[in-house]
Design brief:
A 6-stranded mixed β-sheet has the order 3-2-1-4-6-5, sandwiched between helices. 48% of the residues are buried. 28% of the residues lie in helices and 7% in strands. Helix 3 crosses helix 5 and helix 4 packs across helix 8. It is of the alpha/beta class and 363 residues long. The chain has a single domain, classed as HUPs (Rossmann fold). This is FAD synthase. It catalyses: FMN + ATP + H(+) = FAD + diphosphate. Pathway: Cofactor biosynthesis; FAD biosynthesis; FAD from FMN: step 1/1.
Length: 363
């Protein structure tokens, strides 16, 4: 199963099917918690009221910190989609841009085409979205919101005789690691409310490391203090459970990129393989580069008040659980170095441009 819930920001062990490869995670020693300075980028926009002031100001937290409840967004999904569509159009209409932004504009157009094709092929009611709050699936989500605006507001020959109201929420799944960072959990809660995700959380709880299991913690990792006593579930099991309760879902958008482990041979539309539950995986951001991901998210106004997970500003470049994620050592500010310090002595993730270095903070 592909990444990004199954996360695109995951590490795949060897000897897996292409489905498992996109979902799997390795393990490293337990990392330090993100600092209290972690904040997302949040210019004022239409969805600001969806996030409590306390959550907007602080997206990191100490281990075991309770996640603040997030009020439902009073702005309807139709207006949120129109707002995000306007942001995306500003990027696409930008002129006299640098080469990275020019490539990003083309990537956005291609991603929108893939999503439009999926909507025409399956219909909104049969589509879901895999979301874990990471940078790749945030790009996917924002582009999907823009595409939904055009899909439900522009005339379509297919819908001439069909009365289709704008949906009120977006079906989605979050296959969580057994040891999530509070900062990630808080951002997922805030952003899923802001963007009207009907997000089903299914926590995975695999046994100790084994090549046949995904997202395993090291044997030496202490148990998460709030881990509920649930049956062991891999990402595959999580998706099987999700689909068993949502039998009308035929395809799922996922944020896997070709530079992810074992993503090299994936295609934009690819059915699950191996012993995964049967559904179509749709990969709208498959061919995006790291520099393009950040060019999109950091385009003025793109992420709005919701921002992105603040851990990226502290030197984390790929997010998993606490047992398999550390700050990227290649971003550490050396003594005497004149460099931007995003927090804790590390440069922000968006200063990294080499795709091959992105996962240096993951095993």
């Amino acid at each position: 199963m592909p990444g990004n819930g199954p996360p695109s920001e995951s590490n795949a062990p060897s000897m897996l099917t292409s489905t498992e490869a996109s979902a799997a995670n390795g393990s490293v020693p337990s990392p330090p918690e993100p600092s209290e300075a972690s904040k997302a980028v949040r210019p004022v926009d239409l969805v600001a009221d969806a996030i409590p002031e306390s959550a907007q100001g602080q997206l990191s937290g100490e281990e075991g910190e309770d996640v603040l409840p997030v009020a439902p967004n009073p702005v309807p999904l139709s207006e949120v989609c129109a707002d995000v569509y306007g942001r995306v159009e500003k990027l696409l209409d930008a002129r006299e841009v640098d080469e990275v932004t020019r490539r990003t504009q083309q990537q956005v157009r291609e991603s929108m085409d893939i999503m439009s094709k999926a909507l025409d092929e399956y219909g909104f009611e049969h589509l879901s979205l895999s979301y874990n709050g990471g940078k790749d699936c945030l790009v996917l989500l924002l582009i999907y919101l823009a595409v939904l605006h055009t899909h439900f507001t522009r005339p379509s020959s297919r819908r001439k005789t069909e009365a289709q109201d704008f949906p009120t929420s977006i079906p989605s799944i979050y296959a969580t690691p057994p040891d999530p960072f509070p900062a990630v959990t808080t951002f997922v809660s805030a952003s899923s409310s802001a963007y009207h995700l009907s997000l089903i959380h299914i926590r995975t709880n695999p046994p100790p490391p084994d090549p046949q299991h995904t997202h395993a913690n090291p044997n030496s990792a202490p148990p998460h203090p709030h881990l509920p006593g649930v049956p062991v579930r891999t990402f595959r099991d999580a998706f099987a459970l999700y689909l068993s309760h949502n039998p009308t879902i035929n395809a799922i958008f996922v944020g896997t990129r070709r530079t992810d482990p074992h993503g090299e041979h994936l295609t934009p539309f690819q059915r699950t393989d191996g012993n995964w539950p049967d559904f179509m995986r749709v990969h709208p951001v498959l061919d995006w580069k790291l520099s393009e991901i950040w060019a999109f998210l950091r385009f003025p106004g793109m992420v709005g008040s919701t921002g992105y997970c603040g851990m990226y500003d502290e030197g984390y470049t790929s997010l998993g659980g606490r047992g398999d994620t550390v700050r990227n050592p290649l971003l550490k500010v050396q003594e005497g170095e004149d460099a931007l310090d995003g927090g804790g002595g590390y440069r922000p993730a968006w200063t990294m441009v080499e795709d091959r270095e992105e996962r240096a903070g993951r095993e």
